[in-house]
Amino acid sequence: MPSFVRVAVALIFMTSLTVAADSPSTEQVEFFEKQVRPLLAEHCQACHGAKKEEAGLRLDYQAGFLKGTDSGPVAVPGNPQGSRLIQVLLYADNDTQMPPKGKLADEQIAVIRKWVEQGAVWPKDSAAVEASAQPHWAFQPAHRPEISREQGAQTQTPIDSFVVAKLREKELNLSAAADRYTLIRRATLDMWGIPPTFAQVQEFLQDTTPDHVERLIDRLLASPLYGQRWARHWLDVARYADSKGYVFTAEPRYPYSYTYRDYVVDAFNQDTPYDQFIKEQLAADQIVEGQAAGAPPAAETHDPRLAALGFLTVGRRYLNNNNDIIDDRIDVVTRGLLGLTVGCARCHDHKFDPIPTADYYSLFGVFASTTEPEELPIIGVPKNPVAYQQFLQELAKREAEVLKYEQESVPKVAQEIRDVAGDCFQQIARQLPAWAPIPAMFHGKNEPRGPIVQRWKDALSRTAAQPHPVLGTWHRLAAIAKAEEFPGEVNRLVDSWSNGEEAAKVNPRLRAAMTEQRPNTLVDLARIYDSLFRAAQGEWNELVKATPDAKQLPDSSMEELRQVLYDANSPANLTLDEARAIYGNDIRNMVTNLKRNVDNLKVTSPGAPPRAMVLSDGPIHEPVIFIRGNPGRHGNRVPRQFLAAASSSERKPFAKGSGRLELAEEIVAARNPLTARVIVNRIWQHHFGTGLVLTPSDFGTRGLPPTHPELLDWLAVETSGSSGTETSPSPHRWSIKRIHRLIVGSAVYQQSSTENAAARGRDPENRLLWRMPRIRLDFESFRDSLLAVAGKLDDVMGGQPFDAVMNPGTTRRTIYAFINRNDLPGVFRAFDFADIDTSAAERPQTTVPQQSLLAMNSPFIQEQARRLASDCHSASDDSAAQIQTLYRRIVSRDPNDEERQLSLAYLQSAQTTTTEKLSSLERLAQVLLMTNEFMFVD
pTM, whole model, 2 decimals? Predict the structure, then answer.
């Protein structure tokens, strides 16, 4: 090909590839990140990466790939056959073959071929240089923006000014104000999760005072019902559940998860400042009075704020894989509080945001420096003292069963250590480089367990410097560095025993076996020890059987061998705690089952005192980077510190214990622009259905920008009292209730939801908020509203969760339902419950047949209809009065003339047969419970 043609092709290639890479689809990005990039990282970047650039090619970032080799591009988008990259992977004869260590599997080559065929899309890298040159909006300080000077009936608050200014850019305006009935119903469902009563509506309609809306908001925020409603929103962020996920045979339920849920309810009701709320959830053990930093909470501690640490501890247990548990805690902290997907940096630098892998492992070090104490602190007193005493008695009984079994298991573990002594010697020999290729010949079917091998290894290390008639020979021959030198050294050793003085230093049985067998390898020597130990153990077993109180073997040479297995230096001489560390599966499973009985009691007993699911600082972990996320491959050491993207130019490593309190302080610091923006966006989201930022847990470059950036910053500054690095001493700093007052008191919130065809054409998704969106009740509000209008809602605060959420007899608020990660009830999924395995930014919005089918056929809903009809019958026998009562109870208003006439006609014509479950009045009640007016917030 002529050179000018090659140049033209290269230019076309670079242009097309750059365009594709600038705007890749979600599917293209996902295919590259999950399938292509890992192949390049594993098989290509060692020679074409940061350390080496063979042929001038880099395959670890976009610009390097676009450049290609010194000879030009390596891929032609859409043309695998014409791509040099594919040619070298195919190992064609007489051609370059890559990777040089061996051809990729056919399916791996197929992945690269498909990638090139689909355009060779390589998403833009997150280069920190680009981020620092033009900071992403979310990393810029929040400043108090200037409020528009436009005045009018619809711009009475700063929120209105920002929204109206955006609307007028599109020649739009807010909708007319909602009527009072709609407003009180909207605000009450919004704040309480249940509708207002007819009496509450009438009182609001008749209130002629100019501050009637403000007083309504104050009343709603002052009720404990507010905390029960808004705590549920936070529990989605905190991935709250009452079970652990799959944990083998252990108790799957968290006995005390409910204490975190109750803490959140109380925090919202008390309007705990949000910065304090964060600090308590990350480091309550270091904040509560009298609690020393780094010390485990004492069992007698009663400060309920310790329950805040459930934010970190109620997540999935990931088969008890500690690295995954820590990853989950990093994710809930960073996505939940900062709106950053830091978990993406576990295996490599974040591909889009300025979050290097080093920052991920800095946070990893914080949480790796914590432990979960066996004994959780009591934070309250059981309400029933009799039940409490019964609980203590039964608890002591079950815990005694665990301890008894464990104590009886220590001799079993010790005997296992003795039984595999020779096998452990063989395994230790094979761990030395000179003997690794020698195959194992273990006495049992399986090789000895690693922890037991390690105990023997440690025991040998302790005796290495001491003369020993049995082990001295092992130490001398184990020190040989080269395999070929071993037989000669054995011969010299055996020959030295012709000297009586030297022979006396060695156990006679060992001396005889060595002289006869002359081992050629250290593994052979281990087998000699194996046979000698087994012989000594066998003689001892026979002696003890005949003479139970025997103290030693009569043969002194055999007794010396037995002492290796039984004396104070033996690894079989172990405490209960040491035995626990090396339990076999049979003992461990039995202990787990016995402990499950203990945990089950804590879950089910009404007398169990509430305890906090705390963390405490343990041994400080100095983190290192896990190369490509592999804990077996250590990279550079990193300090425990905050994220560079949200820090000042000079970060300081954490110095107080694990660093959790310092981490919390960095998260709420004035210089961090993310925290306030994220929380006000979440509050806005639950008032309007969507946030000002439509990706509430991703404020990074892959998230969507705010629809009203000035409004977002204004709310953030109003919340935190911080503008840039300046902090005001406002008494309202970090008040969540104050943000509610600002939002609900605005004309934007109080406008009607009336449709507007012209506005719909200019802003089809209502992003500019030209009307109030209609929002369907979430599952909790729907169920609670059913109970509330039926007069059966039990709104008692706190306590252990209840099961069978749709059982007709259960009446507690839904926030207190048992949330089971292992088996979430289908009704939760049908009504778009949050993903409980990870921090949930928002709930899905679906319309599926199961929702209508449940409304028509659910025994729970039918039971509420029966209760309503029964109350109507009790109040009056008059059909018109009964209809009026139903409307007042269900939709908090009187029926209009048409509704009254239709309802009367139905009751007069309906015939109830013996096969029908509901009477005509009960069916009418159920119909009203299924109306859009009941199920939607208008």
Answer: 0.77
